[in-house]
Amino acid sequence: MMPEEKVAIAVQVVYAEPGSVWRADLQLPAGATVGQAIQASGFSRLFPDYPSDAPALGIYGQACGADRILADGDRIEIYRPLTFDPMESRQRRALHRKAFMTKPRNRPKRRKAKIAAGLLEP
Asked: What segments bear the compositional bias annotation Basic residues (predicted)?
């Protein structure tokens, strides 16, 4: 006896904004792609300001493309575009830490080296 194939899969499409989360529960035919799920959810109609030329997508936190085949129970996440450059942000944090460093840096003890060179008495 062969197992029955599912003819429909249940997926969620999720988009988080600061302060709110939008979610759409969908029933799609087996073999549907991420792009088809985004289109079926009506996301572009509800969020016309989102840059839809190449949305950043993922399934449970793992980045994927719009052509990925969905499995039953997948949660498709639409990511917001970055509003800052991550490299610039890291550089600012490093400068901030350096400016407010209160403890002196640990320096190696040079006494043993001077004793070995004969400059100091042991």
From this structure: 103-114
The pTM score is 0.63
Q: Concatenated DSSP letters for 71-111?
A: -TT-EEEEEPPPSS-HHHHHHHHHHHHHHT--SPPP----H
Q: 76-101: per-residue pLDDT in tens?
A: 999 987 777 778 888 888 888 877 76
Q: Minimal CA–CA distance to 38: which of 4, 3, 79, 6?
A: 79
Give yes or no: residues 12 and 69 share one domain. Answer: yes
Residues 74 and 95 in one domain: no
Q: Is the dihedral of CA 58, 64, 68, 71 positive or negative?
A: negative
Q: Exposure of 34 by Cβ count < 10 A (0-12 exposed, 13-18 middle, 19+ buried)?
A: buried
